[in-house]
Write a structure and sequence with these properties.
Layout: E1 2-6, E2 9-13, E3 16-19, H1 20-43, H2 47-80, H3 95-112, H4 117-122, H5 125-142, E4 149-150, H6 160-165, E5 167-168, E6 171-173, H7 176-198, H8 205-222, E7 230-231, E8 234-235, H9 236-252, H10 255-260, E9 265-268, E10 275-276, H11 278-292, H12 300-305, H13 311-317, H14 324-342, E11 344-345, H15 349-358, E12 363-366, H16 371-381, E13 389-391, H17 404-412, E14 420-424, H18 427-435, E15 439-443, H19 447-454, E16 460-462, H20 467-471
Parallel strand pairs: 9-12, 9-14, 12-13, 14-15, 15-16
Antiparallel strand pairs: 1-2, 2-3, 4-6, 5-6, 7-8, 10-11
């Protein structure tokens, strides 16, 4: 084993060589993974998404980077020597091809996972500048991506190790690798610690900022490089940089948002959100408590806690001696009988649904109540024609606050997790919406209910359902963090 046998190699063992170039590329990739994972966690994404994207985008980026280089460097040579295409350790990866390859995978993955591709890229793209800054030092060790011949005096004040390595083919070369590395690192700092912190970027703006900054930096640096890939006597990197910059500019001006803007999916809890079911729920519970726990006096706090959890969760909370499955069955039978006498739509609920439906919104119900009970309530209140999908307790494995029901409703409505509003009336509802990454609206009819919901920190709290119409006019992204 030999350590640092030459400038581009870290160690050599027999016929195996570990080179700086792939190691620095991997370090850059790990930074992207770390940075993106943190953002995904904040956004409510599962860890699997970060893992899948890291693997898929890495493979796609390497393939894209290599093919871009092969096509625009010397396609005829590589067609004559096809095995050379696979020898990436010798250098020859074009970062712009890597970006295109990675983005293609991310777009396909986002569509399959019902995630906004723009929001996904917002959480990834800025970190790519740091990875690119690190990767450019791989070019340094390979003595590539350099610029014009310069006099020795050019390196006055530079570290000697850079000056020495930039002595290539009998002359000093301009360190364009360093220009781009520094420019990319500066871009990351400006985008994350200045632009993001002191402005209110909308969805996609971090992607557009990346494209504009990197496009500008690469265009300028490419002017000084002496080993550029060419296309019809034009520098391919500069052509691509112009395209990147223009796409970023058009996006930053908001033109893409106007063209591709989609209405959010709007999902509701049912009990005490759209329908006044408090009376029938309490009457049913009081009947069962009177029958099986006659000495137990239900307090106001007890009554509030009965509204929201599943039947199983509620019955387990109290000292019933009867089998819980039997209690649930009895509750449901009695509750259905009492529906006609108690249930009614909440103020403005029907008007709200009617207006939303007329404006083209897809609407759904996600509740810890069983689906047949929701369907009965919708029929009795006249709200059935406005609801596109109902996800009740019997359609999920885990009840709220688990986000499973909300995600199932979004998939059923062909929507995206990042473009959804969830409206509920209690802490559990708000937590479920937050866990799903949705924009949450808490609806309350009493100060006690309001205080309960505020503990979950929803995006909005309202006491009139028609306020939702006003909220929908806001120019924001419908996610829990409004990013």
């Amino acid at each position: 084993m030999r350590l640092f046998p030459d400038l581009s190699t870290i160690l050599s063992i027999g016929g195996f060589e570990l080179r700086w170039y792939p190691v620095l590329i991997i370090i850059g990739g790990i930074f992207i993974y770390w940075y993106s994972s943190r953002n995904f966690k904040k956004a409510g994404y599962e860890q699997d998404i970060a893992d899948d994207l890291f693997i898929g985008c890495t493979i796609s980026a390497v393939v894209g980077a290599r093919l871009w280089f092969v096509v625009f460097y010397d396609l005829q040579y590589y067609l004559s020597n096809p095995l050379k295409i696979l020898q990436t350790w010798e250098g020859g990866l074009a970062i712009q091809g890597a970006i295109v390859g990675g983005v293609i995978f991310a777009l396909i993955y986002a569509k399959r996972k019902h995630i906004s591709a723009l929001r996904l890229c917002d959480m990834i793209f800025p970190s790519m500048l740091v990875a690119q800054a690190i990767g450019r030092w791989g070019n340094f060790f390979n003595q590539e991506a350099f610029g014009r011949v310069v006099p020795e005096s050019f390196y006055s004040g530079w570290p000697s190790f850079i000056k020495d390595v930039m002595y290539i083919n009998g002359s000093y070369q301009e360190p364009t690798f360093f220009y781009e590395s520094f420019g990319n690192l500066l871009g990351f700092i400006l985008i994350i610690f200045v632009y993001k912190k002191f402005s209110k970027p909308k969805r996609g703006d971090l992607v557009y900022a990346y494209l504009m900054w990197y496009g500008l930096v690469r265009f300028i640096v490419e002017e000084f490089r002496s080993d550029s890939l060419m296309f019809m006597n034009l520098k391919m990197a500069q052509l691509t940089s112009i395209a990147f910059f223009l796409i970023g500019l058009v996006g930053m001006l908001g033109l893409f948002r106007k063209v591709f803007k989609r209405k959010p999916i709007i999902l509701f809890d049912f009990d005490q959100t759209l329908a006044d079911t408090e009376g029938v729920i309490l009457a049913t519970y009081e009947s069962l408590f009177k029958k099986y726990l006659p000495d137990y006096e239900l307090t106001l706090e007890d009554k509030i806690s009965l509204l929201g959890p599943t039947l199983k969760q509620t019955f387990e909370k109290y000292p019933f001696k009867e089998d819980i499955s039997d209690l649930i069955k009895e509750y449901r039978e009695l509750n259905f009988k009492l529906h006609k006498d108690y249930i009614k739509p909440l103020p403005n609920a029907v008007e709200l649904l009617s207006q939303l439906k007329a404006e083209g919104y897809k609407l759904g119900i996600v509740s810890n109540k069983f689906t047949d009970g929701i369907d009965l309530g919708l029929d009795l209140t006249g709200m059935s024609p406005y609801i596109d999908v109902v996800i009740g307790l019997d359609k999920v494995t885990d009840p709220k606050p688990n986000p499973e029901g909300i995600r199932k409703a979004i998939i059923a409505l062909d929507g995206k997790y990042d473009n959804c509003i969830y409206v509920g009336d209690n802490y559990n509802d708000m937590l479920a919406g937050i866990n799903a990454g949705s924009f949450t609206i808490g609806y309350y009819q009493s100060e006690e209910r309001k205080s309960n919901m505020l503990m979950a920190n929803p995006n909005r709290v309202i006491d009139n359902l028609l306020d939702i119409i006003t909220i929908l006019k806001e120019d924001i992204s419908w996610t829990k963090d409004m990013s």
